[in-house]
Each structure stands twice: as C-alpha cells, then as structure tokens.
Amino acid sequence: MIDNSYILGLFGGGAPMASNPAVATALRDAARKQPTPPWSSSVEPPKQDALVRSALGGRKFINEGAAQLDVKSASADYRKLFALYQGLDTLNALVNRAATKGVSSLELSQLTKRFTSGLTEIGSWLSSAEFDAIRMVQGTSTMTSKTTAAVPRDSARSVTGPIHEGSVDTPVAAFQGDTRFSITIKVPVGITDSQTTAVPIDLADMGATPRTLDNVLIHINSKLEAAGFDTRLGREQIKAEPRTVQVNGKAVTLPAGPDKWALAIRASSTETVGFTAAETSDAVYVVQSSGAEGGAQLLKFQSDGGTAAAPTAGGVGETHWIEGRVSQEALPEGVEDVRASAVAPDGSLWIVANVTAGPDTQPIKGVQDMALMKYDPAGRLVATRTLGAASTASGYAIAIDANGDVAVAGSVTGALNTSAADAGKTGVVADVADSFVTVFDKDGQEVWTQRRGARAADEATSVSFGVDGTVYVGGRARSAVPGASAVGGWDSYVQAFKAGEAYPTAGIVAKATATTQFGSASDDSVDAMTIDGSNLYTAGVEDGRAVVRHFTLDAAGAPTLASTRDLGAISGDVSGVSVSGGQVILTGTSRDSGLSAGTTTTAHSGGKDVFVATLAGDLTASAGDRMTWYGGAGDDSAADVKVHNGKVWITGVADRDPAADETDPTRGYLARIDPLSGAVEYEKTWSGDGDQARPLTLAVAAGGASVLDRLGLPQGEIDQSDSKRLVDATSLRVGDRFYISPADGGRSVSVTIAAKDTLASLARKIEIASNGKLKVTVASEGGSITGRSGEVTTTMGGFQRLSIMARDGKSGAVLTPGETGRNALAGLGLSSGYIGASTGDDVRKTFGLDLPGDLRLGDAAAVKTAGERIQAAMKAVRDAYRSLDPATAASAAVSGPVPAYLTNQLANYQAALARLGG
User: Fold this and answer.
1) What is the mean pLDDT of residues 876-890?
2) Cα–Cα 20 to 30 A to 95, which of 41, 234, 869, 907?
3) Which element (helix H / strand E) includes 648?
4) Are 566 and 534 in contact (CB under 8 A)?
C-alpha cells in the first residue's frame, strides 16, 4: 500500500499525522493558546434557577477559584475574566427572574436586594483586580469625559417667552392698547452704594407708527439711549419645526408653523435691569397636571380688583385659555409631582417638586429627588435646587419668611449625607422613610439640613417659621420620634429646630430644641400647620375625625398644648389651616359625615365638597364660628388653599362624578371665598389637554399681575447671576466624593466635595489626585442672541462643564465612584471608568463594562434597562477574551471560498493518486 503522505509531501502538502481521534484532540489542545470560555457552545451553561438560588442563598458573585481553565499555561487574566463573566451571568439570572410574570412583591424585593449587592461586589472586585495584559473597568473607557452637570455662566442678557408669532413686520398684539411701564437701571456708586433710575416707557408716544416688533424696540432703545444707559432690548427668533402627533394610533407629522419671537434684554456688566408697572392687581399661581401624560404646567391668573387691565387673550402657543388667565408655562420634563408652592417677598415663586430626572445640566443621584424651583413673576425658571438624596426624596411642604429664606420639608430614604454618619437606615428598614427639613437663603443657597427619623416610617408634611427664626416641622410617625414617646398607629408630631453658629466663622448648625408627639391609639397626622406670634396651630385627621390643636410657644420656642377642637367625623382630608384677624380658618374636603363648626352659611351639595370652617383663636365654640361648603353634586377636591387678606383661595378638581374612570374628563377650578359670609367672590373652571386638568398647588402674589405679563417681562430686577458653588448648582452635597487611581494600578486617591467648591477648584483637585495624569479644563457652551436688524449675533451666557482627558494623550487614570450615598460621580454626571487611550501601539487595551452602580429591578422598565446593560457588559468580557490572543481569534475567524492556488494544489493531489491507483 502506498503512503499518501509521501505523495502529498512531493507536492508540498501534508497528511494528518494520525487518524486516531484521541491523538488529533490531544494535538489540537497542545496547539491551543486560549482556554475554553464559559460561553462556548461546548460548555454546558449553568441552570438559571440554580444561579438564582445561589445568589439568594448569599453566595459570592465573583469566585475566581471556581473558574475552570482547560489550558494549563493560560494567563491568570483568563481566570479573572471567566469569574467576572460568571458573576455577570448570575446578575442576568436575577434580572430574568424579576421579569417573570407572577413574581411576588416579596420575592422581587429579595431579588432587588441581591442584585444591588451583586453590583456592589462586582464593582469592588474590579477596582482591586489586577489584569496583566488588559484593563477592565466597571464604567466606560473613553479618551475624553465631560460632566453632564453644568453651572450657568453669569449673563447680562435675559430672554422672555414668545410674545409674537409670524412676520416681524406685522403689529404685535401684546403691544396694543394702553402699554405703560418703566425700565429700572441700577448702577453702582462707590464701593457699597448704588443708584436706581426709572426710564418710563409709554407706547402711546409712538403715535400712529405701527407697533411692530422692530418699531417698538427702536422706541424703547431710544429712551434708554437718551437716559445714558447701555442696556438694550432686542428680539430673539424661535424657529418653528415640524411636529409629530398621534392620530388613531399612527404618527402624523405636521408642517412647521410660523416662527415665534421673544424679547431679549441685554444689559451691561455694570447695569442691573428691572421692570415696574404702576397699575397692578393680585396674581394667583396654579400648578396643575394636564393631559393624559400628566405634564405639569404653571398657570397665572389675574384676580379681580386692582388697577391692571384684564387680559383679553392667551399668549403665543397657549392652550385652553379662559378669561382672567395671564400665562401658561410648561414645567421641565422629569417633574413627577408638585406638592407645595409659595411666593417670596420679592415676588418670585418657589415650587416644591418631586423629580425622577433633573434638568439636562443637573442630573440627580437617586431614583427620585426633591427639587426646589424658582420662577420669576413672568413664569421663567431661573434656578433649581435639588436635595441630593442618594435614593429617594419627596418634598411635601414649603414656608418662606419675611427675609426670603425658604424652608422645605418632606421624607427621604437612603443616605442624605447631612453628616458623616448619615447613611440612612439599614437592614430590614433600609427602605423606610425619615423626615427631613432644609432651609435655603433667599438666593437658594442651602443653609442647613436636618434629618430626624423614628425607627419606623415617618414623614414631615408641614413646615413654618416662628417669629424668632425657629423652624417648626409637623408630620406623622409610626413609632417614637427622637425626644418623644409613641401613642399608637401613625402619630402626629411637631419638632422645633433652631440654627446658629458658635462663633462668626464656625458655620451654621441647626439643632432640635423641642419635640412633641400626640394623637390617638389609631392613625393620626398633622396635615397642616401655621404660626401666629406665640401660637402654633395644627390640623389633621385623628382617628377619622377632623381635629385642630392650639399650642402656645414659650420663650425658648417649645410648644405646649393649650386647647383642642374636634369638628367631628370627616370623610375626606384636611388641606390647610391659617390665622386671619384672630380667627382660625380650617379648609379641607369631606362627604356629609356630620362635620360641623357653628353656623352653616352654605349647605353641603352632595358627593365630596370643600369646607371652610372659621373658629375662634382659642378654639372654644363661639357665636362667630362659621361652616361654609363649596362644590357641586359630584366630588370636589381641595388640592391647595391659601388665605390672603382674610379671603380663602382654593384650587382643585371640580364636580367630578364619583363613578368616573381615570381617563374621563377632569376640570380644574380656582375660587375665592369669604369665610364669614360664605360668598363665592371669584370662580374659574377650565379644562386641559386631553380634557384632563388636575390642579396641585396655588400661591397668591400681592400686586403680581400687570401689563408686563403680556410682554413676558418680570416685575422687579432680573437675576443676572446664580451661585457657582457646586453644592448649589448640582445635586452634590458636602462630603460626596469619588476616587482616582493610576491607570496601571496603585493606590486610589479620594476627591471630596467641599462647601465652597466650584468647577475651577474641582478641576484642580482632580489634576492633583491623578498625579498630573489627567488634564481638566472648564469648557464653556454659549448661547446667541440675534440683534434688532438681524445682522449682529452676540454670544453670551450659556453653561460651563468639566472636560477631562489624559494629559499625554495616552495613559490617563481610572475614576471609581464613592461609597453608597456619597457618590459624587452621579451628581456630576460623570461615568466611572478609564480616561485615556484604549488602543494603539504601546497602549494597554481597555474594556469598559458601562455598568452603572444604580441599576435596579423595581419595575418593568428598570428590569429591561438592567438586562440590556448586563448583556452589553457580558459582550465586553467576550471582547476582552478575544483580544488576549488576536492570532487565535483571527485564525478561528477564517472563512469564505478556498483560494485558487490551494484548489489547484488539491487537484494535482487527486490526479497523482488516480494515476498511482491505475
């Protein structure tokens, strides 16, 4: 027999050295450089249910000892990669189980807890794991990283909302009629003084000249120039774009409408601009949820009375206008709920909102945060402050004192970082809420925050300022709050906080000075609270009854119960309590359950009605007590109430059928009631987008409405600057931090946020912590305003962010997040991971898992996101595996048609064998 290998050798070919399968396998294994990965089709994958049981049983997610290598000479990097992959596979099994239909809430809680622990374990392991040939990071791998958090630059310009639609050559409706106001210009005089000049503007002085946008601006600017000021008003074009709407379930693109135009106020660096009007009326702000999606809107109404001309039409782009409404503005996306609002002494409006996403320039750190939003009288958002909670925070109440200081109260879960020890509750009560109260100054800078919680759940629902600056918080708790004793069920409580500093530079510190806890053996709550001199009143539902309590405040501000008034059984809620003219005014909603207080001025109308009860200051029954009911035959709500000049303003949902579905039409209302006579003096009802309008809060501004509203101009001075402190402009808190470690391993250095840190000071800290490996710059992003004639474009304002890159363009550094509850990267909007070159000659390849540490399994959307992120991370591990031996990976990937030379060679082999075989 002829040996084919001899013939093949003559033709430059070869035959298998052995036909024995075992020998062939041994030869292949000897030639193989990479061990078989756990995702190979030749490896039996672990059972998903077994992975879930293992995780819930408390086993570690990363176990290098359990990683199997079938190539003895394989690098230790493979063992680490396989262990990492198996840890990610376990996380993926938890996600898949959470997505299974029918999973109980208890099991989902257990899955979420172990999933969070697994993420933390993997992140911790990655930060200390040392790979030889590659670099693996939990976050991203990028050449340049920018903070999404941004700080606004000082700007001497301000842009109004749109006031005109269409051609600039047509008369502007907002300019018609009696249009008179003054522009105030304040300039510095010397070092500490200033001088304010009012420049009167009366469009009647234009005579027969058409009041087009350009003509009016020429007139106004001529007055400013004549007065010797540099401030000018221009116009800003808002380009119209096509929009897509849903029609019968199909997307329909509508053509772009006409362009819109706004006013642009451009001052100089030495001139502070403001606006005043001689004729004013009171204004009422209503925040509402509108449309099927529940988008939040800010509505401004002009009250009757006063001297301001009544509005005759809605503004540009507004919907569902009704008589008396001045403006309509949409609140930013991400606002989930609005619980409280109040007007400051300068006329600005502060709103307490719960947000699941901060503004584009202000990311939040947790799932939900409390946001304090400041609007100027024209409805322009000028500042946003977030609490900076690491998990969840909700704001429920607001109070503003005569100095403009703002107190906000609510509840928080997880860490808040009010102190080094504030990591939130742990163990089985980790998700149980605590009460918090935060005080900001008139500029929105946080002064102090206190977190006070019972062992069980508690929340602050009311807040007020005392005459001496003491802050009082009312709420409810399921167990004893510090300094008091529990009564039973949900208890009511009141706490007093006093702030001060030991010496002028010590810093302000607040301490609880008094606590009282009260109620019945059943469930109770403080739903509203107010202070009148040395008297404190609370109102709420105690064991199903409407109860008002009167406390006297001693010299130290401690409350002592003086009297109690039980108004009877209530089938509804208490919305507010105030003191006016020495009388206590209680407002809420109830069915006809026997609730009473003296003489009834207006009878109950059916369903759930709003009630206004007027009581004596000492709460004793008297001849002056009154009970007024307001509403229709259906259900009415009292979402919010304010007492102004002795009259009660109420807003809510009007006369809704109790049997109505959630999607049935819902109308909002605004009413003013005389609490003594019961007369309804003012009343408006309206609809919203999709026939849905649900008012949430209201606030009254004395003299807040004027001709300036239709021009989009605010009363008072325009804010030209905002705080540059990171703890004000972002969701960062003092003590938040992250770590920087050398790209090739080594000791990590912490970067900690201080109270006075700005972008510039943080940039310097990062460079020092990276030992000069990172270059950090403050990058500016400007805005533009088109001049009057359209020929000049001026860039000013905008935002500033941090931009981080490797100083030498190659070897940078690794950023890792701070501890849970103190992660500064989340507040900065920075991804953890490697910053520097990840490919190229003499560069270690870097692979980022892009696996955020805040992934959760709380709902279907969160589960979907977590699953997608984990799958992407597992792919990154597979990519890293292939990169360890590119030659092997390349040879395994060879495919396609056989080359011609090899085809010819094989044909020669076959011909030779045929001849030999005869």
Assistant:
1) 79
2) 41
3) strand 647-653
4) no
The span from the CA of 445 to the CA of 465, in Å, is 18
Report how far residue 378's alpha carbon sits from residue 708's, in angstroms, rounded to the nearest whole number: 8
Q: Is the pLDDT of residue 895 over 70?
A: no
DSSP state of 634: S
pLDDT of residue 785 exceeding 70: no
Per-residue tokens: 368: 């939900």
Dihedral angle at the C-alpha atoms of 875, 881, 885, 890, nearest 10 degrees? -30
Amino acid identity, position 646: G
Compute how many other C-beta atoms are within 10 angstroms of the C-beta atom of residue 355.
26
In this structure, of 70-74, 441-445, 860-864, 891-895, the range with the lowest mean pLDDT score is: 891-895
pLDDT at 17 over 80: no
Stated pTM of the model: 0.86
Alpha-carbon gap, residue 729 to 362, rounded angstroms: 7
- Report d(CA 473, CA 496) in Å as an integer: 6
**What is the rounded distance in angstroms from the CA atom of residue 801 to the CA atom of residue 828?**
9
Please give the DSSP secondary-structure letter assigned to residue 112.
H
Distance from C-alpha of 633 to C-alpha of 656, rounded to nearest angstrom: 8
CB count in 10 Å sphere of residue 252 = 10
Residues pairing with 578 in the sheet: 585
284 has which bridge partners? 301, 700
Residue located via tokens 């011909």: 911
Beta bridge partners of 747: none
CB burial class (10 A; 0-12, 13-18, 19+) of residue 218?
middle
Mean pLDDT of the chain: 89
- Backbone conformation region of residue 12, classed left if phi is above 0, alpha if psi is from -120 to 50, else beta: left
Q: Could you give the 3-state DSSP secondary structure of residue 825? A: helix
**Residue 145 three-state SS:** strand
- CA dist., res. 903 & res. 898, Å (int): 7
- Whole-Å CA distances, 204 to 216, 219, 220, 278, 835: 11, 11, 12, 16, 62
Q: Which of 561, 563, 515, 568 is nearest to 541 (CA)?
A: 568
Q: How far apart are CA 732 and CA 387, in angstroms?
A: 8
Tell me the β-bridge partners of 135: 846
Report the sign of the C-alpha dihedral through residues 866, 751, 803, 880, in that order: negative
Q: Which two tokens stand for residue 737?
A: 């931090």
Question: Residue 683: pLDDT above 90?
Answer: yes
- Kindly report, residue by residue over 210-268, the tens digit of the pLDDT: 999 999 999 999 999 999 999 999 999 988 778 776 677 677 788 878 889 999 999 88
Question: What are the tokens at 159?
Answer: 């842009």
Q: How far apart are the first and last CA of the chain?
A: 13
Q: Is 490 left (phi over 0), alpha (psi -120 to 50) or beta?
A: beta
Mean pLDDT of 141-156: 90
DSSP run (H or E) holding 728: helix 726-729
State the pLDDT at residue 757: 96
76-110 exposure pattern, b = at least 16 Cβ within 10 A, e = fewer: ebbbbbbbbbbbbbbbbbbbbbbeeeeeeeeebeb
Q: 235 forms bridges with which residues in the sheet?
A: 263
Burial of 500 (0-12, 13-18, 19+ CB in 10 A): exposed
Measured CA distances, 627 to 595, 601, 651 (Å): 9, 6, 18
> How many residues are recorded in the chain?
918
Place of tokens 């997307």: 251
Structure tokens at 81: 């990669």
Q: Which helix (H) or strand (E) holds 282?
A: strand 281-290
| CA 673/CA 620 separation, integer angstroms | 23
Which of 392, 352, 357, 362 is closest to 729 using CA atoms? 362
Q: Is 792 a residue whose pLDDT tops 60?
A: no
Helix (H) or strand (E) holding 128: helix 105-128
Share of the chain above pLDDT 90, in %: 73
